[in-house]
Amino acid sequence: MPGNNELLKQQARYISHEIRNQLSISDVYCEVLKKHLDKMNIQNDAILKAVSCIQKSSKLIGNSLLDLKSITNINPQIISLNRIIEESIELSKVYIFDKHINITCNLGNDVQVYIDENKLEACLLNVLKNAIEAIDLKGTISIETKTDNDTVKIIIANNGKPIPKKEQSEIFKDGHTTKPSGSGIGLYLSKINLQAQNADLKLIRSAKKETIFEISLQILHM
C-alpha cells in the first residue's frame, strides 16, 4: 500500500486531471460562442471581452494545476511588461461587481523582462483583487511603472481600508490572512514565485489614506 505522501500525490494528480477536463470544456464552448457570433455577423465587444477573460483565466488555472506536479514549475520567457499589466487590469475588473472603483494606469516606456508570464500575471491579479476588496463601495486604484537603471518597479496603490499595523509584517507568511474567507496563500505564493526569478513583491506602506504594494523586476537588455 502506498504511504500517505504517495496517496496525496495520486489524489492531487487525479483532481488536477478532472479540473483540466472541465477547463477544456469551458475553452471549447468559448470558441463555439466566438464562431457563432462571427457566423451571425454580430460584433459585441462586451461578450468578446468576457470570453477572452474566461479563456485567460482558464489558462492561468491550468498552469497553476501544473504546480501540483512540481513546486519548481517555472517557465520564464521574454515578455512585454506593459502588455501583462494591461491584461491583468482587464481581468481584475470582474471583481469590482457593483462597486464604483476608478482604476488609473500610468505606464512608462515599455520594457522587456525575462519571467514566467503566468506567475507574474497571477501575482498582479492577486494584488489588484486585494485592492478591490479593500475598497467598500467607492475608491481608486492606481498602477504605474518606474525604471531605475536595470530595475523596473510596478507600483499598485489603493485608498481602501488599510492593513492593520500588527498584520503588516505577517501578510507574506503562508496561511496568514486578514480576511474572514481568505486562504492566506495568495500573497505568500506571489512572493516566493517572484523571488525564485530574481524579482520581489513587498508592501511599501499601508495607512489610512493609501496602501502601496511594489513589484520589482529585472529589465532585460537586448
Structural description of this entry:
A five-stranded mixed β-sheet has the order 2-4-5-7-6, with helices on one face. 20% of the residues are buried. The protein has helices at residues 4-39, 45-66, 81-92, 117-134, 186-195, and strands spanning 77-80, 100-106, 112-115, 138-148, 151-158, 200-206, 211-218. It has two domains: 4-66; 77-218, Heat Shock Protein 90 (2-Layer Sandwich). 44% of the residues lie in helices and 22% in strands. The radius of gyration is 19 Å and the shape is globular. Helix 1 (4-39) runs antiparallel to helix 2. It is built from five helices and seven strands, in the order ααβαββαββαββ. It starts with a helix and ends with a strand.
The H-and-E topology, N to C, reads as HHEHEEHEEHEE
CATH homologous superfamily name of the largest domain?
Histidine kinase-like ATPase, C-terminal domain
Instruction: Flag low-confidence runs.
Output: none
Number of separate strands: 7
What is the general shape? globular
Rounded to an integer in angstroms, the radius of gyration calculated over CA atoms is 19 Å
CATH architecture identity of the largest domain? 2-Layer Sandwich
Number of helices: 5
Q: Please bin the fraction of helical residues.
A: 40-55%
- Terminal-residue CA separation: 53 Å
Average pLDDT, all residues: 85
- Structural class, judged by helices and strands? alpha+beta
CATH topology of the largest domain: the name is Heat Shock Protein 90
Q: Strand count, sense and closure of the main sheet?
A: 5 strands, mixed
Highest CATH level, the class of the largest domain: Alpha Beta
**Structural domain count:** 2
